[in-house]
Specification:
Distance between the termini: 29 Å
GO cellular component, one term: membrane
Strand order of the largest sheet: 1-3-2-4-5-6-7
CATH architecture: 3-Layer(aba) Sandwich
Shape: globular
Strand content: 5-15%
Protein name: Alpha/beta hydrolase
GO molecular function: hydrolase activity
CATH class: Alpha Beta
InterPro entries: AB_hydrolase_1, AB_hydrolase_fold, AB_hydrolase_sf, Epox_hydrolase-like
Keywords: Hydrolase
Structural class: alpha/beta
Amino acid sequence: MAQDMQTARLFSTDSGNGRALILLHGWVADSHDWSWQIPELEQHYRVIAVDLRGHGRSEVMPSGAYTPDHYAADIISLIQKALPGQKAVLIGHSMGGQIAARIASERPDLVDAVISVDGSLGFDQSFAPLFQQTAERLQREDPASVTSEMIQNFYDAATPAAFKTWHSRRMFGMPEAPFRESFGPLFVGPEQVGVGQGSEALLRSLNIPFYHMCRYVEQAIAMRPWFSHPKSKVDVWEHASHWIMKDRPDDVNAAIIDWLNKL
């Protein structure tokens, strides 16, 4: 269970007042990815933006401490300490979206709703061999080279060149253990929930409002029946990269606020 694991010291910022939102970035990233959302969201809500373990300014834990359950344990601890007796809305990008979904499944008493911004969820089973191959390459090759090659497929024509440079440069500052070890468990192994039936089973088990933003029509069509809460929805976002919230910040901010206001 995630809540029984040793937790890391996390760097976070806390601004605004009202309903609590916790922003969770993706793999090989940090909370700066939410710089386009924080100024707008903090006008309406209390916004806690976190650097996950081994990322940004948070504590680097030893090798072997970078499964999704390890990441979830840190956020469960943060909610309990920062929001005693309260629930939070979890907003996660990429890996952060999967962590949010896992927390909602394990500790629904702590989660009010989840917003997944192209979260690591709902991929067709046909992607499994590619994810397996990538996880293996991350173990034996230079992780920055492997990741740089992979994320070229994640961009859109609308993505500014500066974002691509930023993403590439910050990889060189990543500690080795979280860089090599975090990706695989998201999609590979008996506990994975990023692909196929593993993802479907997790999302069907949730009874809270869930908003998933993705980039592919086929994925959206497959995922929509998995959510039971009447306020849940899956939207397709075009003209954006995997970092939807950077390429279309105003639209994403408006969509988040509108959805939350209707809950």
